[in-house]
Amino acid sequence: MNIWRRPSFWMILVGTAALGGYPLITGSASTREVFFTVLMSVALASSLNILLGYTGYVSFGHIVFFGLGGYVGFYLISAQGLSLYPSLLAGGLASAALAFLLGKAILRLRGAYFALATIGVNEAARGFVNNFDPFGGPIGMSLQFQVYNEYGGAVEALWTVYRILILLTLSVLLVSFLVRWSRFGLSLMAIRENEDAAEVMGVVAPNAKTWAYVLSAVFPGMIGVLFFFKNGNVEPGDAFRLHLSIEMIVMVMLGGQGTVLGPLLGAAGYQRLRGLLLVSPVFKNIQLAVAGALLLMIILFVPAGVVGWLRRRVPRLRRVLE
Amino acid sequence: MIPAPHLMGTVEGAGMILQVLGVSKRFGGLQALSKVTIDLPAGQILGLIGPNGAGKTTLFNVINGVYRPEEGRVMFRGRNVTGLRTYHLAHMGMARTHQIVQPLNELTVRENAMVGACFGGERHGLRAAGQIADEVLEFVGLAPRRDQMAGSLNVAQKKRLELARALSSRPQLLLLDEVLAGLNQPEITAMVQTVAEIRRRGVTIIMIEHVMHAVMNVSDRVVVLDYGEQIAEGTPEEVSRHPQVIEAYLGDPRLAERLAGTAG
């Protein structure tokens, strides 16, 4: 199966690039901020989808990779004076390394046990960083303002960060596509459907799961670096927010787990909804409760998500919605 | 049957594709298998029979690495494979079907078969695996359903899918766990022909079966298990005359009669 010949491949990548590029053309900083949140969610949700959607392992603590990668990259920029680009790589690698080690330890757990373990990992990471002095302990770290001079000043740096985010998001979607239509992806989906049967057919499940976990951790790590570089400061409470993990799951489930398009639509749709709720006087304080209710509704009524539901109902759309 | 060159290395197991040597397996207080020993020459069909709960599926699970036996060894293609994982054995050319079908529901029939071709003994890429899957689905008669989700098949079709997945890995040894159960008479006839054809292509087979006339017709040799004990072994004819075998089946005297009648 040649993915370059799939219409959905071009639709998704060109569509994302065009939408992401829109603020670059208009030059509006406020549009850029809205799109920053959306693209970040798309990239995080699509990363999680590799583990949750393709492999069938629910990670409730996936934000740990965002937080840890962010911390490592931020530390390199603020304390070691490294530039943004190597720090981005280092953040991604740090998250990948953590996922690799964790994978060896907790991926043998299945179902709810694995999910619980991932929450524990996130809390442990938060506890560790809280007490780790080089990372600033509970106070965290801040960037000196002149760091941004290297990127043409703070205003220009924000645009640079946004352009990198577009590239990262496109990379995540590309990876998602490559995995979905590869031999490796087939092994992940076999594990999702029935891990024991997959092993009997020769799938080396422990390895496949570990690599899926690593792959789903790399980009959140890099995005963490980008996010905190943009913010100018990082603290444990911001880096390891458990509810962000849950929002990531909502986005994947809403759009449709196990598809490339699902997390993209889910993340965009969820952020749009959240934007509306945040400005509504009734919902602005309980928008997280809405996320919880939404997750419940999806699991009860459309477990396959929007894309999965459409694929089932309208077979003709299957070529495009994947 | 002329043994393949790679099988002639060991003296004691020359020509044997599989040897089960004094294997015992216990679950708590239940002795599921006690000192079972089987020699299986390449190219044969071995029937494995016995009443419910005799330990037949447990023996399969020990052979293909799901369980580790407390005692004894399993030799496959001249190598001690005791305690290896199921995927190691799949890579070495062993495939099996499950008594309780285990389809990958949300994948298509074709993708199910492709998993076997991709990750089994021959480790093909996607394109080649797709071709093998198509051939195998044609062979087992599932070709018209290849793009359907595996979960939407009926029981007989799911049994065939189990077989297709196992065959697409191009195994040297195939473990068939009650592929005939739940099938009607014409389906049984068709499946028995399929099994005979698989053997004709050079695959060694062990089949667990309750449908006596089928297993007696198609097997070269038969092993009978009862409460984990190996109570008889031999040609179908020898086994069906064995007093202990008849006794084991006495709960259903007509079955014992039929058993003797068919093979004699």
Structure description:
- The complex is a heterodimer of chains A (322) and B (264).
- By secondary structure, chain A is mainly α.
- Chain A has one domain (3-319): ABC transporter involved in vitamin B12 uptake, BtuC.
- In chain A, 74% of the residues lie in helices and 1% in strands.
- Chain A has a two-stranded antiparallel sheet.
- The two termini of chain A are 13 Å apart.
- Chain B is of the alpha/beta class and 264 residues long.
- Chain B has a domain at 1-93 and 174-183 and 206-264: P-loop containing nucleotide triphosphate hydrolases (Rossmann fold), CATH 3.40.50.
- Chain B contains 10 helices and 10 strands.
- The radius of gyration of chain B is 18 Å and the shape is globular.
- Chain A binds chain B through residues 1, 181-183, 186-187, 189-190, 192-194, 196-205, 258, and chain B through 64, 66, 85-87, 90-91, 95-96, 98, 102-107, 111, 114-116, 118-121, 123, 125-127, 129, 165, 169.
List the helices and strands and how they pair.
The complex is a heterodimer of chains A (322) and B (264).
Chain A: H1 7-26, H2 29-55, H3 63-78, H4 84-106, H5 111-130, E1 141-142, H6 153-180, H7 183-193, H8 195-200, H9 205-231, E2 233-234, H10 236-239, H11 242-255, H12 261-279, H13 287-301, H14 305-313
Antiparallel strand pairs in A: 1-2
Helix pairs in contact in A: 1-2, 1-6, 2-6, 2-9, 2-11, 2-12, 3-4, 3-9, 4-9, 6-9, 7-9, 11-12, 11-13, 11-14, 12-14
Chain B: E1 16-27, E2 30-41, E3 45-49, H1 56-63, E4 71-76, E5 79-80, H2 86-91, E6 94-96, H3 109-119, H4 126-140, H5 155-168, E7 173-177, H6 185-200, E8 204-208, H7 212-218, E9 221-226, E10 229-234, H8 236-241, H9 243-248, H10 253-263
Parallel strand pairs in B: 3-8, 3-9, 6-7, 7-8
Antiparallel strand pairs in B: 1-2, 1-4, 4-5, 9-10
